[in-house]
Model the fold of this input.
Amino acid sequence: MFIVEETIAGADAVQIPKQRGESLLDTAVRYVEERHWDVFPGTWLEIVDGVHGCSCGDAACPAPGAHPARPDWATLATGSATVARRMWQQHPAASILLPTGRTFDAISVRETAGFLALARMERMELTLGPVTLTPDRRMEFFVLPGAAAKVPDLVRKLGWTVASLDLTVLGEGAYVAAPPTRFGCRGAVQWACRPTPVNRWLPDAEELVSPLAYACGRER
Done:
């Protein structure tokens, strides 16, 4: 059974369990040490004349404070706690970004479909990996690497296409923003299903595609 965060809509939900008050540096290091996830620092929020803006300088930035700060971001991603600590010491306010296609891929769906799928998965007694909820109302289900290559065919066998379902798979060359990264004034990334010792071993995408496709189809 999995646990949906009861505090997901509350002010405390932006903090990772057992990490209240920790800095972004501490949180990034914990991801490396406890989950063996690669991490890299992204942009950060700056306040200019009382307005939150992105450190990239683009006034129309679509993800202020929550995207890579440089084009070669993939080369910066590290699984070393020492290197991660050094990078966030240089930029303490930098967002925490996790590259996909390495230790995990992520299946992204609309928030409404995600919650519907979570309820269905609970009834099916599926074991989930971590799931994030982003301020742009998407849910990202962490699965084993390789999902990006197999999900389109799996969805087709169910009679859909990924485009028709608004279902996206993030694999090699992509990334997700990790809690408690903030998207400008829109809020912070939260855990819908938090990382625990129980879900250290991620599910294969094949186990989740059916309930996710069903939920996305219902929400069309």
